[in-house]
Structure formats: structure tokens, C-alpha cells
Amino acid sequence: MVVIAIIAILAGIAVPSFRDLIERQQVVVVADELQSALELAKTSAIQKNGNVMISKLTDTEAGTSGVCSNANEWSCGWRVFFDANADGVFTTPGDTLMLEFLVTSGVSVNMSVIVDNNPVASTSLVANRWGQLAGNSQFHLFTTRVGNASPAANRVCISTTGRTRVVRNGATCP
Description:
Elements: H1 2-48, E1 52-56, H2 59-62, E2 77-82, E3 96-102, E4 107-115, E5 118-120, E6 124-127, E7 137-143, E8 154-158, E9 164-167
Antiparallel strand pairs: 1-2, 1-6, 2-3, 4-5, 4-7, 7-8, 8-9
């Protein structure tokens, strides 16, 4: 009985730590996937002479309800595509899909472009023929259970030159 009691106490202590570890890893995976999608958009734009977009998926496209209703809410996922007709919308036939990613449930992704020191919501980014994305943008990723103050929160930062990087553990973009 004593051994079972000790195991129960240790399990009670360990379970919250494992939950935090799992949530932190989920956010890291989504941040890395987002950074990879941004890099794919940049290199593809150089190869295709521009018009490569990364745009958020809608609730309908992701099969969710009310998750991505705001312009800055990218929690449903995103797609990278070559916008052949330059209309800013993925259409078939015509546009070429390069990547589509659905975000893991339990992770929220918010995107904003910084204009005159104010965040502005955006539903897409365009990579130009030099592979540059709209500069001074950021994606804030965090767990839905804890919120944006979570120690597991990450940011994917896009500098004014188009360089992307992941800032871990709730730090802000420089």
C-alpha cells in the first residue's frame, strides 16, 4: 500500500509537467512548420519570379467552426501557392499549390504586420521576385489552454529585410 501511495503521489506531481512539455513541443512544431512555409514561399518566389503567397486557411477549408473568424487568426492553418493570375486568392485550376498545413488543435496562431508601430491584421503575405516577404511581421503562437502568456509561447518574426526567425519561450520580436 505504501508503494502504491508513493507512486500515486509521484504521478500526481509528474502529470502537469508532462502536459506542459507536450504543449511546449506542440507550439515548437507549429512554429517550425510556419518558418519552413515562409522559407518555401521565399525560395519559390525567386524561382518563379514572384507572386508566391502564403495565406491563412478559412474555417471551411480547415473543417473547423469559428476558429479562424478574425483576420489575424491563423489557427486553422495556411497554404503556400503560386498565384498565377496575381489575384491574391487560391483558385483551381490555375494556381499551383505547394504546401498546405493544418495547425494542431490546442495551438493558437495570431499574425500581425507592424505598420507605423501598430499591429495590423493580415490574411496573407506575398513573396516578391527577390524572395522578400512583407517586412516587420510576426506570428504569435501559444497554447489555447494557457493563453498568450504561456511560457510555451513562441514568435515567428519577419524582419523588414524579409529574414525569418523563431523566438522561443514568450520573447518578443526585436
